[in-house]
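Q: Could you write out the predicted structure for this multi-component system? I'm mainly interested in how the pieces pack against one another.
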Amino acid sequence: MATRRKSSSTAGKPEEIRFEDRKASPDDPPLAPPKLGLILSASALFFAPFFYLLFYHYQIEPELRRSIAINAAMSFGGFVVAVRMIPVAARYVLRRNLFGYDINKKGTPQGAIKVPESLGIVIGIVYLVIAILFQHFNFTSDSNWLVEYNAALASICFMILLGFVDDVLDVPWRIKLVLPSFAALPLLMAYAGHTTIIIPKPLVQYVGVAVLDLGWIYKLYMGMLAVFCTNSINIHAGLNGLEVGQTVVISAAILIHNIMQIGASADPEYKQAHAFSIYLVMPLLTTSLALLSYNWYPSSVFVGDTYTYFAGMAMAVVGILGHFSETLLLFFLPQVLNFLYSCPQLFKIIPCPRHRLPRFDPQTGLLTGTKDGTLVNLFLRLFGRCSEKSLCIRLLIFQALSCLLCFGLRHFLAGWYK
Ligand code: UD1
Ligand code: MG
């Protein structure tokens, strides 16, 4: 968000842009080093089961395995590049006055530091380069997929652009809400896949058919999914590490879900849909981990709406192309709850302040929940005051439990539901 306004929201009056402020001083303190130890050990939690399922547990065709392994190697390369690029880009955005103040540290020396904003732009660019280059290594002959793959990339690219526009221009809330529907257009226009849904078995007797063709309504649903995924990540935010952390947890769950579907199916088209999903989600996961190494508490960079929109759009297109939007929405359970709880404020039934964040006490370093309708505040009210880091960890554990619940539901309802 436009830093100038962000700083104004905390200072109370608009900040003047002085020319001399535009130059970063040569003795600017360097960015704190990335928390790589923490990130790499956390990564083992989900990459270990993923590679176990890919190489040992399931019998997967060597070609497909090879494509996934190349994608993993390129994604790891993206991680390394992003870790190196973030400090460089951070200097440039600071020079352009693109920074924010850490609201949950207000009143402490850390709260007065200008934290570089919108570093999601680095992640978005590295992601796009990997996803574009990877097409060279996709060894399937079905080129129809490439049309949708490139349309998906166009949507993600458009979303990164609009997110960055929002960060720089500070777009009003009602316009923010609709930006993702424009970004989703390339995918919606190019989408040539089926527009049918399988009716859950217990409902077939009421609907009368087992498979229902929704036609254009299906495309409308896809557009709404993109709007929901992007905005719901953007409003479940405001704690160091939360925006990126939730994306990491959800994309890890998507990755494992995809490999389980590939392993359990014999239908080549179904496998291909999930393979494409893997190709798009793996670089999202690794580049997000790179960003998390700087954004984890205490954040040395902020991700900006560039990142929240980009991550939401990437996950939406992955769910659309992989045909598992219901599962995706179950992975998004905390975001769904946060959105429902936010509705009265989002739709202006009750007043909505610029930031709906908890109250920080600089004496104790603890956060207290306010009356604003967010999951962040609800957790503080339900489980008591705690530090920003503990609150973020609690929310991420809740995110992981929602994903596990989704895996459990899929397992127990298989055969009965669909
Ligand atoms: C959304 C939320 C808003 C929340 C904000 C925090 C709604 C309707 N909007 O607005 O309530 O306060 O996200 O991201 O729910 N910041 C921190 N610590 C962090 C991350 C961000 O203090 O860990 C602050 C910084 O000042 C940063 C600013 O939030 O500059 C970024 O806010 P922005 O993403 O522009 O807010 P919105 O997405 O508009
Ligand atoms: Mg935001």
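A: Regarding packing and overall arrangement: Confidence is low (pLDDT under 50) at residues 1-22.
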